[in-house]
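Tokens in:
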């Protein structure tokens, strides 16, 4: 179990415009925690800590980020859904894997991603980048399609694991391009990138968070990105949509949810303060560096987004016949 404390800032923080707000006064007494289903240092953890630090300043109280890694976030999501919290404020960093994809693939997952949590707010979404080793000279997605058609069933796509967005983005590509490729799952982006750079696999739809440094350093070649609009951090990399794959949209998204029995009033209060955090220039700057965009909005907007994502990825899982053994 890993814990880090974001301690409320000194007296200067209490002089901030929001310090005396009703939100700070009305929060339940007790510990404030954000649970993260990944180890410290990963994208979900980093974003939780950025938001947690700012919320601690707004509320004038410590915010603890508690890591419970395992099963691509599912262990923590399951713990959170089945725990009866008696005091404090308990939040979970929801992720596309835990709340839109994995429950539709893995039989061991018994929580309901749409019923067992109270939606609070969307933190943002990051595109994925189709990457390959720098020694490969593919100028466009059309070159990748041509290579797949020239060697059907021989081109390999690596992912951070079965059921990951990297995996399903490749399946979406296979269906849209009318090609067949080999899926090679890894235990995370790190070992996958090692084999990609070593030439053991051909491509990956890696997360922008994980791939950014390698692409910008020239070690990997970024061919195309997977959201409809280009991310600010990679304005020179075209989107799948621009390259003829209309409507292709695959992203890793991050949001905050509460326990199922959280009051609507408390969810609205926390949502309002998360929106304040996401509007801060220094937070925007840090998130832009990771390709995180599109966060904020109402509780209702996030709830509708979660439902639409669950439906979208469920259709991909069924159409591509993705199973635990895929």
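Residues out:
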């Amino acid at each position: 179990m890993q814990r880090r404390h974001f301690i409320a800032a000194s007296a200067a923080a209490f002089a901030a415009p929001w310090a005396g707000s009703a939100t700070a006064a009305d929060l339940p007494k007790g510990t404030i925690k954000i649970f993260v289903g990944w180890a410290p240092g990963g994208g979900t953890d980093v974003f939780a800590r950025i938001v947690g630090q700012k919320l601690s300043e707004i509320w004038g109280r410590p915010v603890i980020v508690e890591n419970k890694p395992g099963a691509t976030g599912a262990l923590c999501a399951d713990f959170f859904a089945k725990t009866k919290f008696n005091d404090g404020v308990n939040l979970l960093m929801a992720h596309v894997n835990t709340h839109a994809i994995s429950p539709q693939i893995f039989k061991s997952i018994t929580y309901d991603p749409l019923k067992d949590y109270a939606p609070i707010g969307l933190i943002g979404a990051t595109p994925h980048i189709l990457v390959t080793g720098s020694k490969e000279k593919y100028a466009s997605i059309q070159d990748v399609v041509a290579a797949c058609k020239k060697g059907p069933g021989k081109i390999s796509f690596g992912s951070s694991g079965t059921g990951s967005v990297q995996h399903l983005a490749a399946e979406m590509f296979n269906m849209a391009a009318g090609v067949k490729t080999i899926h090679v799952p890894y235990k995370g982006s790190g070992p996958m990138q090692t084999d990609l750079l070593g030439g053991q696999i051909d491509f990956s739809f890696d997360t922008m968070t994980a791939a950014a440094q390698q692409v910008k350093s020239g070690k990997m070649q970024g061919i195309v990105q997977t959201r409809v609009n280009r991310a600010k951090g990679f304005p020179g990399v075209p989107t799948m949509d621009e390259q003829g794959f209309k409507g292709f949209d695959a992203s890793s998204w991050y949001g905050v949810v509460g326990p199922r029995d959280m009051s609507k009033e408390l969810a609205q209060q926390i949502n309002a303060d998360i929106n304040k955090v996401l509007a801060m220039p220094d937070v925007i700057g840090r998130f832009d560096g990771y390709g995180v965009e599109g966060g904020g909005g109402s509780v209702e907007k996030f709830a509708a987004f979660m439902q639409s994502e669950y439906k979208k990825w469920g259709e991909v899982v069924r159409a591509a016949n993705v199973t635990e053994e895929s």
